[in-house]
Amino acid sequence: MASLVELQRAMRSALHARQSYAALPLIAATASWSAVDRLHVYEDMVWVRLVRALLEDFPVVSQRLGTELFERVAATHIARRPSTDPSLAWLGRGFEDTLRELGREFEASLARLEWARALAFLAGDAPAASAAELGALGETFGDAVLAFHPSLQVVAVRGGVLAAYGDPVGGAVDDEHETHVAVWRAVSHHGASVNHERLEPMEAAALACALEGCCMAAVCDAFSTSPSPAEDATRAVLRWIAAGWVSGVRMPPGANAP
Questions:
Q1: Is the C-alpha dihedral spanning 151, 154, 156, 159 positive or negative?
Q2: Which among 109, 163, 199, 205 is least surrounded, fewest beta carbons within 10 Å?
Q3: What pLDDT does residue 255 have?
Q4: E strands in 143-233
Q5: Alpha helical stretches, state H, 148-215
Q6: Which long-range contacts does 126-131 make (Cβ < 8 Å, 24+ apart)?
Q7: How many Cβ atoms from other residues are within 10 Å of residue 90's Cβ?
Q8: Beta bridge partners of 28
């Protein structure tokens, strides 16, 4: 009799490669169902669930491709990048790359936004910092490092992706919905709601720097080419706080505490 590990490996091979041969000796036939038939029923059920899991994370990609093409792309993704995580929540990792390998550049950019939103939904929560915490830093402000809400990400996508997603332009420039124009969004969640908010290029660079752990002096340098760098940097940081993106402030080792 096969061990549990052997059975699991055989079934994994059958499901990922759609090759039933290794698992067949481990499947008992019944009076009305052969071992092959029983395994195929399970294979089909699992693959349908995997495709549905991808559909849940990439609904707009699915709408753009259509059901039949999306299912073929999903099957290709599952075959090329089989998940090693017990949770289906991570099955979409690398879906953008799969689409790009298949020559679907626009849909790959759309998948980047949808995957960022999926990750934001899965992220934990954190308390929001206040402007007073930053104000209390005084002369040590430049050395400070911001901590952020776990869901916050800066994502660059093609402008046309926003039109496909139904993203309102708001005060954006006219060419933001052009297919090849790069635009930035800050993706985060508040409660059960996931949002992606528009970022100007300089603010996107500053926020990306801050997320990487840069000190505030380096973050503010992202606005150095602005006509009013100090005002724009201050406005951006206050916006991050008001949006609930900033969860705390810390001083790096060796820096003087306020």
A1: positive
A2: 163
A3: 61
A4: 145-148, 153-158, 182-190, 193-199
A5: 159-165, 201-211
A6: 126/150, 126/247, 126/248, 127/247, 127/248, 128/241, 128/244, 128/246, 128/247, 129/241, 129/246, 129/247, 129/248, 129/249, 130/241, 131/238, 131/241
A7: 16
A8: none
Share above pLDDT 70 across residues of the chain, in percent, rounded to a whole number:
89
Residue 90 DSSP class: G
- Phi, psi (5° rounding) for residue 3? -75, 165
> How crowded is residue 125: how many other Cβ atoms within 10 Å of its Cβ?
13
Tell me the average pLDDT across 83-96. 92
CA distance 64 to 23: 37
Cα–Cα dist 140/216, whole Å: 10
Distance CA 182, CA 196 (A): 15
- pLDDT per position as a tens digit, 129-185: 999 988 888 888 899 999 999 999 999 998 788 877 776 543 343 444 455 678 899
DSSP 26: G
Bridge-partner residues for 249, per DSSP?
146
**What's the rounded Cα separation, in Å, for the pair 195 and 185?**
9
Residue 189 has pLDDT above 50, yes or no: yes
Report the pLDDT value the prediction gives residue 169, as an integer from 0 to 100.
45
> What is the chain's alpha carbon radius of gyration, rounded to the nearest angstrom?
24
